[in-house]
Structures are given as C-alpha cells and as structure tokens.
Amino acid sequence: ACAVASVSPPAAILGFVSLISSAMTTCRVFIAAAALLYSTASRAQSDTITSDKVITNARMAAIGSADILDTYLSPEKYKGVELRYISHTTRDSERSRWSRRITHQGSISYADNRSGNGAEMAGAYFFQYAWLYNWRLSGNRLNLKAGAAADATIGFIYNTRNGNNPAQARAMVNITPTGSADYRFTLAGRPFTARYELNIPLCGLMFSPNYGQSYYEIFSRGNYDRNIVPTTFVCSPSVRQMLSLDFTIGRTTLRAGYLCDIQQARVNNLKSHIYTHAFMIGVVRRFKLIKIHP
C-alpha cells in the first residue's frame, strides 16, 4: 500500500498573503478617512455663508469750543472747552437700498463766565437710530442717503456759584429728519471719501422745570407744572452736522473732520442752548459678516 503525504504551503507564501491582506485593509481605512475628510470639508464650505451686509464703524474723539446758556441757572453765557466721544456705525446691504445708522455720543464740557468768577460743567449722552434710503450714483462713487431717526439725550448742567438749584437736568427725545452724502475719489493714487451728514430735529418731548419752580417742588412734593413739554423746530431750533474726510495711512483708515452741534430751546419761559464746534479724528473699520452653521 502506498501512503500519500500532505504537502503544506511554504511559510513564506503564507506571510506574503498576510502582508497583502493587511495592506489592503490599511488602504481601505485610508480611503474611507479621506472620503470622510472631503465630505466634512465640502459640508463646512457649503455651510459658510458670506452676508451681503456691509458694516462701517467709525470711532472718534473730538475737542472744541462750548457755549452754554441756561437761564434757569444763570442769565450769563459760559464759554469753554468740550471733549466728546463718537461711535458712528452704518449697516448697508448690497442687495437693498435701505440702510441703518446707529450713533452714540458722550460729551463733557467746562466753561467760565465773562468775569471769570464762576463756572459751569455740562455732560450728556446722545443716542440715535436712523433708517435711510440710498441713491448710488456715478458708478457708486456718490452715495446719497435720506430718512428719519429717533434720538434721545440725557445730561446735566452744574453751576458752581449757585447754592439754591445748582444743577439742571437735561432729557429729551426727538423725531429727526436726517441725510448724508458720501463721495469716493482718488488723489495721487490714494483713496479718499468725503462725507457730510445733517440732522434737524422736527418734533419731540423735553423735560424742563417751569420758571421759578424748584426741583424740590417737582420731585419731593410732586407739583407737576408742565414739566414734560412738547417741542418742535419752532421752539427748539437745533441742528447737528458733520463734515469729514476718510483717508488711509498704511493699513489703517482714519477719519478727520468738523463737528457742529447747535442745541437750543425756549420753553416754560426759560431759554437754554449749548453750541459746540469741534475738530474730530478717529479710526474707521469696514467689514462683512460671515455666518458659519454648525
């Protein structure tokens, strides 16, 4: 009888097959990881949306002259210096003719009377929210805006000489027609933007004590005497305007210009005004928003 012996494959062949199998598995894992990474990148790219809204923000400091009169405190005019901070933000849309403007201003003034034996200090915070319609002309070089704004002012005037009623509170709200013009041009190869803005309060409400009425009567005894007064451009003719020029130094855009703020009123047999003429300078930033959805 003949015995048939079984022949097993050499060990080298088994090792080679095992190596090929391991390499194929690694390759499949690598391909799957690459596909997952590509899919994630594509999805992230599709979920990143660039907004059509363009935001221009200017933050400026201003210094200039102040002329203060409040006949509740004194019949004298006081003249001195004012410091002011201005935050001016415009939100435009590339697909819409409407834009919004948000303005914050804070000011502090110190002024003396003619004889130099008395002083007044004044401070105020001003906020404005405006809606404007845009006309883009001359190939978008000229941008005209017109609309309406709601604004509010709170502040004080303090007289250093008065013992009785040394301070006057200021509070008012207004509906204000507003407009601006921006013109972009180049000079010596450099970009510039000339800008003018105008605000004229039309009507509103104003706080004022009546002639001869003390704050003790108003707040401690509750004696109301027409202390919330309706105002119009007739009894409170006021105007705010700014003329400025944007220019670039290096990678920074600066804004410099002139601020004219004329605030005055004649109510409750009292007359008041604060006239400000100031030089302003600051930094301008212009950017778009990018939305990323998780």
Brief write-up:
The chain is mainly beta and 294 residues long. The chain has helices at residues 11-47, 215-220, and strands at residues 48-70, 74-93, 98-112, 119-137, 142-159, 167-187, 190-199, 203-207, 228-232, 239-249, 252-267, 270-292. Strands 1-2-3-4-5-6-7-10-11-12 form a 10-stranded antiparallel β-barrel.
Descriptive report:
It is a single chain. Strand 10 and strand 11 form a beta hairpin. Strands 1-2-3-4-5-6-7-10-11-12 form a ten-stranded antiparallel barrel. Helices cover 15% and strands 63% of the residues. The chain is mostly beta strands and 294 residues long. The longest helix has 37 residues. It is built from two helices and twelve strands; from the N terminus they run αββββββββαββββ. It starts with 10 loop residues before the first helix and ends with a strand.
For this entry, give a set of tags.
mainly beta; ten-stranded antiparallel barrel; about 290 residues; single chain
Task: Outline the fold blueprint.
Elements: H1 11-47, E1 48-70, E2 74-93, E3 98-112, E4 119-137, E5 142-159, E6 167-187, E7 190-199, E8 203-207, H2 215-220, E9 228-232, E10 239-249, E11 252-267, E12 270-292
Antiparallel strand pairs: 1-2, 1-12, 2-3, 3-4, 4-5, 5-6, 6-7, 6-8, 7-10, 8-9, 10-11, 11-12
Distance between the termini: 78 Å
Number of strands: 12
User: Strand percentage, roughly?
Assistant: over 45%
Largest sheet: 10 strands, antiparallel, barrel
- Low-pLDDT runs of 5+ residues are 1-9
Arithmetic mean pLDDT? 87
- How much helical structure, as a percent, in the residues? 10-25%
Strand arrangement, major sheet: 1-2-3-4-5-6-7-10-11-12
Instruction: Report the oligomer.
Output: single chain
Structural class: mainly beta
